[in-house]
Design a protein that fits this description.
The structure is a homodimer. By secondary structure, chain A is of the alpha/beta class. In chain A, 25% of the residues lie in helices and 26% in strands. The A-B interface holds A 57-59, 222, 227, 241-244, 247, 253-274, 277 and B 57-59, 222, 227, 241-244, 247, 253-274, 277. Chains A, B: This is NADP-dependent oxidoreductase.
Chain lengths: 333, 333
C-alpha cells in the first residue's frame, strides 16, 4: 500500500518554504501490536507547528529532520491489531502530515461523523476548542461584567474564547485582520466589538471599545498588539499567553513586551498555557461545549483547503492571516 | 521655624540631575487639625522614586512640579494637634525630602527607637521588608526545596527576599554587583550561591548555581537579567515583578523580556506587586519578621549617607548599584 508524506527536510530560518520539506511516496509497513492503519481525511494546521520545526527545548520534542511532520488529524481506520478499534471507526490523533498513518492506538480516540462534520473535531471539538476553554476559564478567570479582549479572534482558538466569554457574561472585544472577519465576529458570533488591526490603530481601537479597560486579555499573537493591550489593562488583569504568531517566523530576537511593567503598576498577571496539561478534563469540557453548540451559543467555522500536496503553502496562510476559521487540510483521495 | 526641602523642579529625561530639583529654604506654617510637626531624621531612598518623577498614570500619583519630593521617613514629633501623638514620639510616614514635615497624622504610625535603630524602620521593618515578605510569600509562593533566585539581592528588598526564602527551606541564589556584595550574601545572609553580574555572565552563573532550574524569580532589575532567568525557569515557575531598576532611566523604550514565551513553554506566571495592597496585613507580617530578627534568622544592613543637601547625588547611588544595603539619607541637624 502506497503512502504520501511530508517529512521535515531542514529547519527553517524565518518563514518555512518548500525547501524545508521533503514530499515522499513510500510503502506502508505491516502493523505491529496495538496499532491501526488510518486513512487520513483531514489534517489540522496550527500555528504551534512552526515551533515544532525548531530545534531546542520546548513543551514538546521538536520534529526531527527526516521525520513525518507532526499534526493532529482525523481519519478512518482501515486495519487494526487492537481489539478496541475496528475498520470503519473514525479516529482523532497525532496522525501526521500524510495520507495514511500507521500508528499506535495509545492517544488515539474515536469520533462520531454523525454528530459533527469531521473537520470540526480539529477545531471547536478538538485541541483549539480545549485550548480556548481551559485557557480562558482556568487561567483567564473571567467574571461576569468584565471586559475580555482576544487577539486572533477569528481563528480557531480566538473565536471560541470570545464566545465562551460572552456565555460567561463578559463584554468581548476581538482583534482580527480585515472587515469581513470583524463583521463576522460581531454579526455571527455576538462579540460586542471588533478591532481591525490591518486597517486601524489597535491602541485607538482599544480606547474606544474598552472604555472600562481590559480585565482579561487572551493573546494569540504577541508583538505590538500585546504591548498595546498592556497600556489598557485594569487592576489585577489576567493576560493569558497562548501564542505569539506574529513572532514565530522572526529571524531576529522575539519582540518582548516593552510595556510589561504595566503588570507591576496594575498588579496584573501574565501566564502561559499549554492545552495538554488539561488532558484529564477534556471529557467534561467537551460535554459542556457540546451543550453550548446544541443551544446555538457556540458556533464554529472551518476553512478547508484540499490537497495534501499543497501543505507547505497552505500552512503559510496561518502566518499571513489568510485563513478564516480553523484551517484544515483535506487529503485528496 | 525654618525648613529645608527638595522640590521637584522638572521631569527628568533619563537620569535625574541637579537641574531636576529645587533646593528651597522655607518657613514652616502653623498646624491645622490633626497634624503634627516632625523633625525628620532619616529619609528612605528607593528606586520607586524615579517613577514618581514621571508624568502619567501609575500605581500612585506622580509628584507634581513644585511639590516636595515624596519619600518615606522617620522622625521625632515636635508639635501635635492630634491627641494620639505627642511631642517626643517617633513616627514613620510619607515625610518627604525635607528637614521638617508638617503633616496629617493619617497614615502616620509610631515606631520605637529602643526596639531597633531608626533607619531599620525604613528597611527590613518598613516598606522594603513588607515588599519582600508579601511579594515572595503571597505572589512567589515558594515551596520547601524549590530554587529561588532574586536580583538586586544585596538591596533593601532583595536581601530580605533571600533570607525569607531560606527560612522557608528553599535553595537561594542572589544576583548582585561586585565580590563584596556576593560574599556578604553567602557568608552573612546564608544564601546558597551568588552571581556577580558585574564580573560574570549571569546566564552561565544561573546554569552552574541552579542545576535544577528556577522555581521562583523575584525581579528587582528587569532588562537582560530577567531575560537570562527566563531561559532557566521550571514548569509552573512564578516570576514576581517588583521593579526594573535597570530600565528606570532609559531614554528609549523599556527593554521587554524577549524570552517571555518561556512563560508559555513552562506554563509559568509573571505577576506584578505593589506593597500598599497588603497594608491591612502589615502588622502580622511585622510580628513574624520581628521574631525572625530576634532569632538571628533575618539580618539587615543600612547604608546611611549624611546630609539632606546631598539628596540628588545620593539618590543616584541606587541606579549605579553603589549602595550596599538599604539606602537612607540622614538629615543633618
Amino acid at each position: 500500500m502506497k503512502n504520501r508524506q511530508y517529512l521535515l527536510a531542514s529547519r527553517p530560518v524565518g518563514k518555512p518554504t518548500r525547501e524545508n520539506w521533503e514530499y515522499a511516496e513510500t510503502e506502508v509497513e505491516g502493523l505491529g501490536d496495538n496499532e491501526v492503519l488510518v486513512n487520513v481525511e483531514y489534517i489540522s494546521l496550527d500555528p504551534a507547528m512552526r515551533g515544532w520545526m525548531n530545534e531546542g527545548k520546548s513543551y514538546i520534542e521538536p520534529v526531527q529532520i527526516g521525520e513525518v511532520m507532526r499534526a493532529g488529524g482525523v481519519g478512518k481506520v482501515i486495519e487494526s491489531t487492537d481489539p478496541n478499534f475496528s475498520a470503519g471507526d473514525y479516529v482523532y490523533g497525532q496522525l501526521g502530515v500524510q495520507a495514511v498513518a500507521k500508528i499506535s492506538t495509545q492517544g488515539l480516540h474515536k469520533v462520531d461523523p454523525d454528530l459533527a462534520p469531521l473537520p470540526r473535531y480539529l477545531g471547536v471539538l478538538g485541541m483549539p476548542g480545549m485550548t480556548a476553554y481551559f485557557g480562558l476559564l482556568e487561567t483567564g478567570q473571567p467574571k461576569d461584567g468584565e471586559t475580555v479582549v482576544v487577539s486572533g479572534a477569528a481563528g480557531a482558538v480566538g473565536s471560541v474564547v470570545g464566545q465562551i466569554a460572552k456565555i460567561k457574561g463578559c463584554r468581548v472585544v476581538g482583534i482580527a485582520g480585515g472587515k469581513e472577519k470583524c463583521d463576522y465576529l460581531i454579526n455571527e458570533l455576538g462579540f460586542d466589538a471588533a478591532i481591525d488591526y490591518k486597517n486601524e490603530s489597535v491602541k485607538d481601537g482599544l480606547k474606544s471599545t474598552c472604555p472600562d479597560g481590559v480585565d482579561v486579555y487572551f493573546d494569540n499573537v504577541g508583538g505590538d498588539i500585546l504591548d498595546d493591550v498592556l497600556t489598557r489593562i485594569n487592576l489585577r488583569a489576567r493576560i493569558v499567553i497562548c501564542g505569539a504568531i506574529s513572532q514565530y517566523n522572526n529571524t531576529t530576537e522575539v519582540k518582548g513586551p516593552s510595556n510589561y511593567l504595566s503588570l507591576l503598576v496594575n498588579r496584573a498577571r501574565m501566564e502561559g498555557i499549554v492545552v495538554f496539561d488539561n488532558a484529564k478534563h477534556y471529557g467534561k469540557a467537551a460535554q459542556e461545549m457540546a451543550g453550548w453548540i446544541a443551544q446555538g451559543k457556540l458556533k464554529a467555522k472551518e476553512h478547508v483547503v484540499e490537497g495534501l500536496e499543497t501543505f507547505p503553502e497552505t500552512l503559510m496562510m496561518l502566518f499571513e492571516g489568510e485563513n478564516f476559521g480553523k484551517l484544515v487540510l483535506k487529503v485528496d483521495s
